[in-house]
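Title: Prediction job returns without error message
Component: structure pipeline
Severity: low
Priority: P3
Assignee: unassigned

Description:
Job completed but the reporter wants confirmation the result is attached to the right record. Sequence as submitted:
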Amino acid sequence: MGDVADAIARGFTDQAGEDLRLLERLCAMVDELGGQAARNLAAASRDLAAQGERGRGLSADLSSIGEARSSAQAAGRLAAELAADQRRASIVTAERVAQRLQAEQRGRRTTSNPAGGTRVPR
């Protein structure tokens, strides 16, 4: 997001639009891969739950994956919104990007579940 804000501040709005679309696709990939990893770890953690310490380590890993997926989902939503704004108006300012990023970071409260799903309030 910082690179996109810099590009906009320097007047490279065409590049910023491309960057936003790329960021949106990358975030979707991170979310998908994170979900697959979480499902695999959840299956393994059920098998290892009786082993105590190792099972707790997997639970921590699942939590980290959930947080990463949540961040990727939020960044993807933000990129999509900013790309849509840019298509509607020829001028998207660096301040607008920074404001949306700060609002998304302040408003994000996540919950995750071991099956790989996460919920992020909008």
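Comment from assignee: result matches the submitted record. Residues 2-110 form one domain.
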